[in-house]
Design a protein that fits this description.
CATH architecture of the largest domain: 3-Layer(aba) Sandwich
CATH class of the largest domain: Alpha Beta
Strand content: 15-25%
Family: Belongs to the aspartate/glutamate racemases family.
Bound molecules: D-glutamic acid
CATH topology of the largest domain: Rossmann fold
GO molecular function, one term: glutamate racemase activity
Radius of gyration: 18 Å
Structural class: alpha/beta
Number of domains: 2
InterPro entries: Asp/Glu/hydantoin_racemase, Asp/Glu_racemase_AS_1, Asp/Glu_racemase_AS_2, Glu_race
EC number: 5.1.1.3
Helix content: 40-55%
Keywords: Cell shape, Cell wall biogenesis/degradation, Isomerase, Peptidoglycan synthesis
Largest sheet: 6 strands, parallel
Number of strands: 10
């Protein structure tokens, strides 16, 4: 859909929890004039240990909510849900943007011979990163590693760095055990850039790729192309979550986002 009448409506951004705020950070820098309605389904997080049908159902609940709030585009700021984006675009007319494809397009530009991907267990099992990267770079070796617990450790907002560092080390070491020459690793879960400093501190020799910027660039190009940018000067940032608003406030401050107008508890999936 490319409806100019919607141009002053908000961009809808969704994740299983606080991770998608890393995409909001990039959107606010690239599109400061745009309103954003964010939904984080923290009560059901992590999605990455669930099955496909469940993830489609949970994602649909959030999209229905964002559509009811008349957003002009839906940004899936979650790699796990993005791996099943085709199942969602089939069901809805509104433009739905995933994060895996823009990330792979960026990787194609840096042309690594070998690349690692750390993500959720579900994302890794779908091989979507491997498949998209191989579309652009058939010769590149992709080492994917799924963590069952890192997203949840970050989602809790407790920042227990003993546990977080141990999990990062376990996942990254298992990639390096396969191939010690890997020098680029994609943070294939939007929660992970919240602790980018930890990844970098533990592995200063590795370049960690945060795909959030590429997804935000794609959104900017899309809205520009279809003449759907906000023409007004007023913008709002509204957060809804099925979890605890206080955790969102903590992450908003950590990522230095614009101050949200409201953070409201709202259940969309039972
Ligand atoms: N933020 C989600 C992602 O990018 C993962 C968190 C979860 O497992 O729910 O994959």
């Amino acid at each position: 859909m490319n409806d100019k009448n919607l141009s002053n409506n908000a961009i809808g951004v969704m994740d299983s929890g606080v991770g998608g705020l890393t995409v909001v950070s990039e959107l606010q820098q690239l599109l400061p004039n745009e309103s954003i309605i964010y939904y984080g389904d923290s009560a059901n997080c992590p999605y990455g240990n669930r099955g496909e049908d469940e993830i489609v159902a949970l994602a649909s609940g959030i999209i229905d909510f964002l559509e009811a709030n008349q957003v002009k585009i839906v940004v899936i700021a979650c790699n796990t849900m993005s791996t099943i984006v085709n199942k969602l675009t089939q069901k809805y007319d509104i433009e739905i943007v995933g994060i895996v494809r823009p990330a792979a397009a960026f990787i194609a530009k840096i042309k690594p011979k070998k690349i690692g991907v750390v993500a959720t267990v579900f994302t890794t099992s779908t091989k979507e990163y491997d498949n998209y990267i191989h579309k652009y770079l058939p010769e590149t070796t992709v080492y994917s590693q799924g963590s069952p617990s890192l997203a949840a450790l970050i989602e809790s907002g407790e920042f227990d760095y003993t546990k977080i560092d141990a999990e990062i080390t376990k996942e990254v070491d298992s990639i390096l055990k396969h191939d010690s020459e890997v020098s680029d690793i994609v943070l294939g879960c939007t929660h992970y850039p919240i602790v980018l400093d930890q990844f970098q501190k533990l592995y200063p020799q590795i370049r960690f790729v945060n795909p959030a910027h590429e997804q935000a660039l794609y959104v900017k190009d899309y809205l520009t192309h279809y003449d759907m940018l906000n023409s007004g000067s007023h913008s709002e940032f509204t957060i809804y979550t099925s979890g605890e608003p206080i955790t969102y406030k903590k992450i908003v401050d950590k990522l230095k986002l614009q101050t949200p107008t409201t953070i409201t508890q709202k259940i969309v999936n039972n």
